[in-house]
Design a protein that fits this description.
By secondary structure, the protein is mainly α. The protein is built from nine helices and no strands. α2 crosses α8 (124-161) and α6 (80-95) packs across α8 (124-161). The protein starts with a helix and ends with a helix. Bound molecules: protoporphyrin IX containing FE.
């Protein structure tokens, strides 16, 4: 997780200033939580492909999960434990078959909603500052969830099949070479 977090931080250029920017604005933007939660779950429950992920009666618990996630982002300590939790979400998502394209689509919805709320409430300079901070931090989160999903998936497969990562990698390289040759557009 550490190396991946380092890459995400370096390449997105997220900084402690971004965290400070969001946390200073928390009293003004925390109130957007219920609307974010409603947008998120209305979208997922209104679409059969994603509605089927949820168990009957689960919605209130899931709403609390997302609401807490938003609150922690604005008011919690953004430290190793926070990032580790985002990585862990990837593992939970494997169990519930929440694929990464679905997670990323919803992160995009949250980000654009946040942008529109900024535009509605603040001037251009503050919108720019707040939105870019939010975007960088939530992009790092999406990266951790996606990689947490991928890495944990491979690790579980290695354990189940009883084969070592190096062996899997070598076998994959050969197979991928074969697939590339087959799939190469004419
Ligand atoms: C912006 C994208 C997303 C974020 C930030 C996010 C965040 C989270 C968090 C924080 C948890 C709780 C992990 C824990 O137990 O500590 C969680 C669990 C869960 N998420 Fe996501 N999620 C995202 C996208 C989705 C999507 C798109 C779906 C469904 C299609 C989904 C379905 C679930 C389910 C069903 C659980 C519950 C797991 C359980 O406790 O059994 N999530 N997610």
């Amino acid at each position: 997780m550490k190396d991946i977090l380092t890459n995400l931080v370096k390449l997105t250029n997220v900084s402690a200033q971004d965290v400070a920017t969001l946390q200073e604005a928390a009293p003004e933007i925390q109130g957007w939580g219920p609307e974010i939660v409603a947008l998120f779950y209305n979208t997922l429950y209104d679409y059969a492909e994603t509605a089927k992920v949820f168990k009957p009666g689960e919605r209130p618990d899931r709403e609390v999960t997302l609401s807490d996630w938003y609150t922690k982002l604005l008011t919690g300590k953004i430290d190793e434990t926070f990032w580790q939790h985002q990585w862990f979400v990837g593992l939970i998502h494997i169990k519930r078959e929440v694929r990464n394209h679905v997670m990323m689509s919803m992160m995009s919805r949250i980000q654009i909603f946040f942008f529109e709320k900024c535009l509605e409430n603040f001037d251009v300079a503050k919108t720019h500052r707040l939105f870019t901070a939010f975007k960088r931090i939530t992009d790092v989160i999406a990266g951790l969830i996606a990689e947490g999903y991928f890495e944990n998936y491979i690790t579980a497969m290695e354990t189940v099949l009883g084969i070592k990562r190096n062996l899997v990698n070598n076998m994959l390289v050969m197979e991928v070479d074969r697939m590339i040759k087959k799939a190469k557009p004419a």
